[in-house]
From TrEMBL:
Metabolic or biological pathway: Purine metabolism; urate degradation; (S)-allantoin from urate: step 1/3
PROSITE patterns: URICASE
Homology family: Belongs to the uricase family.
Main localization (coarse): other
EC number, as in UniProt: 1.7.3.3
Function: Catalyzes the oxidation of uric acid to 5-hydroxyisourate, which is further processed to form (S)-allantoin.
Database matches in InterPro entries: Uricase, Uricase_CS
Protein name, entry field: Uricase
Keyword entries, A-Z: Oxidoreductase, Peroxisome, Purine metabolism
Main EC class the enzyme belongs to: oxidoreductase
Organism this protein belongs to: Mya arenaria (Soft-shell clam)
């Protein structure tokens, strides 16, 4: 039974028409325009607003360590307080409040991640591990954007 299925060409054409009518200031706001349209026209559709960052390359040349990690029979790396660390950050999040939220604030997540990796230019910020710094970044981003 396909009675609840919205055809893919209808979905595609709706996106094109609404983009032309409203423009696309940022992807999250446009997604809300789309979801409002589909929810009004097809009440069986459920909205979820997701966002994210892909391929944010980070290089940390000072204040980076990796220590107190699991020691077992296969470990060969020693603890160190002086290393160069590089990673590629991928972050995903879901908004718990979409209506009335300014999605341009999402740029704060990227700047928070970079801030927690780099720290102040004069002193930097110590990183015990990539994982720990990502955890600290996530906590700080949620504190700054609770939605």
């Amino acid at each position: 039974d396909n009675s609840d299925v919205i055809a893919t060409d209808t979905q595609k054409n709706t996106v094109h028409v609404l983009a032309k009518q409203h423009g696309v200031k940022n992807i999250e706001t446009f997604a809300l325009i789309l979801s409002e349209h589909f929810l009004r026209k097809y009440p069986h559709v459920q909205p979820v607003v997701m966002a994210g960052i892909r391929n944010l390359r980070v290089l940390k040349t000072t204040e980076s360590a990796f220590r107190q990690f699991v020691t077992d029979e296969f470990r060969t790396l020693p603890d160190t307080d002086d290393r160069v660390m590089s990673t590629v950050v991928t972050a995903d999040w879901w908004y718990n409040t979409a209506m009335g939220f300014c999605f341009d604030k999402a740029e704060i997540v990227k700047s928070t991640i970079l801030e927690k990796f780099a720290g102040p230019p004069e002193t930097g910020m110590f990183s015990a591990s990539v994982q720990n710094t990502l955890y600290i970044s996530g906590k700080a981003a949620i504190a700054r954007i609770p939605q």
